[in-house]
Automatic annotation (TrEMBL), chain A:
Residues 279-298, 319-350 are annotated as: Disordered. Keywords: DNA damage, DNA repair, Nucleus, Repeat, Transcription, Transcription regulation. Belongs to the TFB1 family. One of its GO terms (biological process) is DNA-templated transcription. Residues 281-298, 329-339 have a biased composition (Polar residues). The gene is GTF2H1. This is General transcription factor IIH subunit 1. Residues 99-154, 179-231 form the BSD domain.
UniProtKB/TrEMBL annotation, chain B:
This is General transcription factor IIH subunit 3. Part of a TFIID-containing RNA polymerase II pre-initiation complex that is composed of TBP and at least GTF2A1, GTF2A2, GTF2E1, GTF2E2, GTF2F1, GTF2H2, GTF2H3, GTF2H4, GTF2H5, GTF2B, TCEA1, ERCC2, ERCC3, TAF1, TAF2, TAF3, TAF4, TAF5, TAF6, TAF7, TAF8, TAF9, TAF10, TAF11, TAF12 and TAF13. Component of the 7-subunit TFIIH core complex composed of XPB/ERCC3, XPD/ERCC2, GTF2H1, GTF2H2, GTF2H3, GTF2H4 and GTF2H5, which is active in NER. GO terms for biological process: nucleotide-excision repair; regulation of DNA-templated transcription. Its main location: nucleus. Belongs to the TFB4 family. Keywords: DNA damage, DNA repair, Metal-binding, Nucleus, Transcription, Transcription regulation, Zinc, Zinc-finger. GO terms for molecular function: zinc ion binding. One of its GO terms (cellular component) is transcription factor TFIIH holo complex.
Amino acid sequence: MAALSEEVLLVVKRVRQRKQDGTLYLMAERIAWGPEGKDRFTVSHLYADIRCQKISPDGKAKIQLQLVLHTGESTNFHFSNESTALRDRDAAKDLLQQLLPKFKKRANKELEEKNRMLQEDPVLFQLYKDLVVSQVISAEEFWANRLSLNNVDHSASNNKQEVGISAAFLADIRPQTDGCNGLRYNLTSDIIESIFRTYPAVKQKYAENVPHNLTEKEFWTRFFQSHYFHRDRISTGLQDIFSECAKQDEKGLRSMVVQGVKNPLVDLLSLEDKTLDEGYGSNSMAPSTSSANKTVKENSNSAIIKRFNHHSAMVLAAGAGKKADAPNDQASETSSTDGNSRDSDFFQPPVKKVKIQEAIEYEDLHMENGKKTVALNLKKSDRYSHGPVPLLPQQYTTSQDIINSVNCIQQEIANYKPCLTQVMSSSTASSAIAALSPGGLLMQAGSQQAINQMVPSDVQGELKHLYTAAGELLRHFWSCFPVNTPFLEEKVVKMKSNLERFQMTKLRPFQEKIQRQYLSTNLTGHLEDMFQMAYNKFHAWQTRQMLRKT
Amino acid sequence: MVMASEDEVSLLVIVVDVNPIWWGQQANREPQFTLSKCLDAVMVMGNSHLVMTRNNKLAIIASHCQESHFLYPFKLWKSGDGHGDDNPSTSGDGKYELLSVANDIMAEEIKILMSRTEVKGNQTDTLLAGSLAKALCCILFIKMLTGQEIKSRILVIKAADDCALQYMNFMNVIFAAQKQSILIDACVLDSDSGLLQQACDITGGLYLMIPQKIALAQYLLWVFLPDSDQRSQLVLPPPVHVDYRAACFCHRNLIEIGYVCSVCLSIFCNFSPICTTCETAFKIPLPQMVKAKKKKLKPST
């Protein structure tokens, strides 16, 4: 039944479903149909469940709308109102077209996410096959830990970057001659958007005049004809709707000048043309805007420069977005309009302060802030002289022994004559060689082959899968401890049965298989140990539970 | 296999343990293998190394309990030592002169060393760490002399037992050798030495405890004569499993899991709230006390 709080977006009467007359309701989250006269809905589908909608072709007598669900079943609605059937159907279709995409994304997103993860990571895929497909654990448990991690990443990527505005967008319009004395301007929606973003005054005019007074085409024709668009804005006819825009631009430019420069240390003078001397190079006199004796040419030059600056400032402002507003306000607050207080440090713009600070200070020359340290106080430093070496039984030699040994050696060496032809006998040498040959006394350790050479690679692969799957199960098991909530109690019991099942279904056959292949190495000993430890822990916990209950 | 280039210098430093107390006792234990025999074997090894290539260099250090002494090369800066004559006595058997000179020098030096041995009761351990340090200095010296990179290795022939007090110096030497890519090989005559096992493992050398002392020369030539490049092509005794377990500072027992003080890095087998070496107090959060659950009183009927 329809919840009272549901918002009904569209109601269409005289809609037949399964040869029954009724009314179709489109709500915020679902579409529903109820038969005539009855209060309840017989058909109700969430938008999330609908895969797509289909309409009957235009020529047909029956005007129908079909909804196909994800599950494959479909529902047909026949619009039977003689006069308005087509319009009703189209209205319903348009509304559905708007609503379905919103819900579609949400439903599929999770599935898509899961599929993507499984495809990207073959280890995960194998784990999924081993555990969920063979029903050792349920799919929800499997995805429980993994999905939450990835949702965070995705939301970050949804923030789209804003597209900036090209500064040359007006120049790019590039009028083409029409053949006979006319000009064609090609306007795309991108250019229109740029114009609106850069010059909000124009946007305002557009909103005021179109579509009441002018059509779009006329508006843009007037725009291009007006001197607002052209370079020289000297003579502006009063008829021009864009004369106001020009006045607004002047105001904007003046306010920008008043706001001041954020970083006064930017050296603009370095960009000036360097002249050899007065009279050789450029005109060193800067035009003053307030002079009334300006020639026409100077006026137009200053107008162009003004317009150029204004245009650039507007482009930058439009591209910066909302963030630019807050610091702008701050800057205008700190730089007071009073000329005197501008000089005081307190009111300097922050960027300038930082730059000056950087220029006059060197970090290395600051006073050392000695951190407070604690001295190492070793009481038994002789422990380090022998280090972590075990105490070995020392052989005790009496002083008499020492004296005897030294005398003996001194005597021997005093008469030492190297006799290099009789260093050893041949039998000794050959026995030594025998000991060093493969299979000899000293070579025993080397004859053991590395285990990975003895075990075939498919057995190794299977062992790896077993380890991954067992690791996953054991992780679920051990994460249940300490058991605080009834949910964890159930889970730990379930996990224990899962572990047993895994051991039965996967581990035992593997062990039998390798035994049959006469591999004497104990490959699964460690796995068995891990399982046994888990069982021990479970039994300990169970007995403690029972003791607590009694 | 990397072929040694024509002018690549290979330096072998042999450190022989000549602890007189051990060797004196050995003379009683096994008369057929005494220090003289050992020195003969070392000479054979040294000669063989010199003969392998013209560019091979040799140094031999005797590690005594009172000092470490260079048996070879002869200390050139010692002037007027009574060996000023330029014609050393040749053995007359037509031997390559370099070898006969070397052997004579070695014999002389060991006699000198032993003759000035003084009997002291408190110095009975071989100064092995010091000898290794001298060997490293010698290698560095030769490197500076030749001015080029040389391949060098140290062969330690060890007789007496380890001295635990030299542990720190030993480890420093090992790490210094590892940094300089100097191999440390060890040929142990009597009992296994944990320190040398570590040294060989860390620097990439070979460790061998020989079953028959009298066949020492054969073992030396078979196992330790080839240099590191050639060893990869030969079937040699496999590396020994090294026990890297540390011993706790309190009982000197080997432990696998222990407690380490974060201030002075001393290792203990049991937790104690105060480290006995540096007297730092530690707090470990105790497990939270479980409050006794109040039993629900049954309603009295």
